From TrEMBL:
It catalyses: ATP + H2O + polyamine-[polyamine-binding protein]Side 1 = ADP + phosphate + polyamineSide 2 + [polyamine-binding protein]Side 1. PANTHER family: SPERMIDINE/PUTRESCINE IMPORT ATP-BINDING PROTEIN POTA, SPERMIDINE_PUTRESCINE IMPORT ATP-BINDING PROTEIN POTA. This is Spermidine/putrescine import ATP-binding protein PotA. SMART domains: AAA.
Length: 369
């Protein structure tokens, strides 16, 4: 395994008596797009600031290419930050904003500065904008200037603190593609902070889901979405139907008074669990053909799907995403496949989850032989 470009080892941060980071351990490899995802106040921006050198860790170590950098000042670290408000200088044109850090170092000739600024602006598709004033630029263009100002310094890592939050919905979506494409073209490590799960799922190679100063789960977007580790992750990442259930035995789980075949294993017989069914995995059918019967309460048209709320006979509420509308008050069936059911232990840690998954995969491999 290659040495991570950044490693946080048991990083704790306290402000007076308040502990905002509670022993963070994360590894960031070269050339990947990482996202810290979580609600406001969970500690994600604090991690960014500690890596950048703007904050000191109360306990633990920050390593860059294996070397401890806790005491290295921010201007000596090979990372640059793009802030939420971009922090551009309104009295300077685009060229002067992008070249600001190079000019501060006083070791580059004017030609070298001009060449590096031109390369950086070309990388963010702003060729020909060097003489523009900041006030003449759109929000998306200003964001790209901020990124150009960061990458012109040739950082090994780019830290992005919710840089899309001030943009309108369409521009925000366009910039998700721009950022992902830029990261892949530059080949440097991006660490992106957001509370928007759609952004995280769309752009990331790996996501760290945070809450209350802890990393609850890390993995690829598909892993996080399809295999949430606990109630918080399942509820925070996308929309979910979460119900209490019982793991009858391997590959069988009971909920809403019925037993269903599932794809999960490795738990104790009759262990209390929570069951997750994503709304897009539920199909509406006839009552006779359904695994469950529900009554349609309401629906909203969301453009490419109908968001339907229904209730079963036990008063459990179900959220369904359907391509066709339903009639309020109509009784219908819901059906789903065994692999659409995700079973979660009530208080499972990521280490417990990994151990259970490994045991399950070993058993599957053995059975295949």
């Amino acid at each position: 395994m290659t040495e991570p470009i950044i490693r946080l080892k048991n990083v704790v941060k306290r402000y007076d008596e308040t502990e905002v980071l509670k022993g963070i351990d994360i590894d960031l490899e070269q050339g990947k797009f990482y996202t810290l995802l979580g609600p406001s106040g969970c500690g994600k921006t604090t991690i960014l600031r500690i890596i950048a050198g703007f904050e000191d860790a109360t306990e633990g170590d920050v390593l860059f290419n294996g070397k401890r950098i806790n005491d290295l000042p921010a201007n000596k670290r090979k990372v640059n930050t793009v802030f939420q408000n971009y922090a551009l200088f309104p009295h300077m044109n685009v060229h002067d904003n992008v070249s600001f850090g190079l000019r501060l170092q006083k070791k580059f000739s004017k030609q070298e500065i001009d060449d590096r600024v031109a390369t950086a602006l070309n990388s963010v598709r702003l060729k020909g904008y060097a003489d523009r004033q900041i006030s003449e630029l759109s929000g998306g263009q200003q964001q790209r200037v901020a990124i150009a100002r960061a990458i012109v310094m040739n950082p090994k890592m780019l830290l992005l603190d919710e840089p899309l939050s001030a943009l309108d919905a369409k521009l925000r979506r366009d910039m998700q593609y721009e950022l992902r494409d830029l990261q892949q073209r530059l080949g440097i490590t991006f660490l992106f902070v957001t509370h928007d799960q759609e952004e995280a799922l769309a752009m990331s190679d790996e996501i760290f889901v945070m809450n209350n100063g802890n990393v609850l789960q890390s993995g690829t977007p598909v892993d996080i979405y399809d295999e949430p580790i606990n109630h918080f992750v399942a509820d925070f990442i996308g929309e979910s139907n979460i119900l209490n259930g019982t793991m009858v035995q391997d590959y069988e789980v009971a909920f809403v008074g019925k037993t269903f075949e599932c794809a999960d294993a490795g738990m104790r017989p009759n262990e209390p669990v929570e069951v997750v069914l994503r709304p897009e995995d539920l199909d509406i059918t006839t009552v006779e053909a359904g695994k469950l019967s529900v009554t349609i309460d309401s629906q909203l048209f969301r453009g490419d799907y109908y968001e339907i709320v229904a209730t079963d006979d036990d008063k459990n509420e179900w959220l369904v995403h359907a391509t066709n509308p339903a009639e309020e008050g109509q009784k219908v069936g819901l059906t789903f496949d065994p692999y659409d059911i995700h079973v979660m232990r009530l208080h499972e840690t990521e280490a417990d989850f990994d151990a259970r998954l490994e045991k399950y995969e070993d058993a599957e491999e053995e059975a295949g032989q």
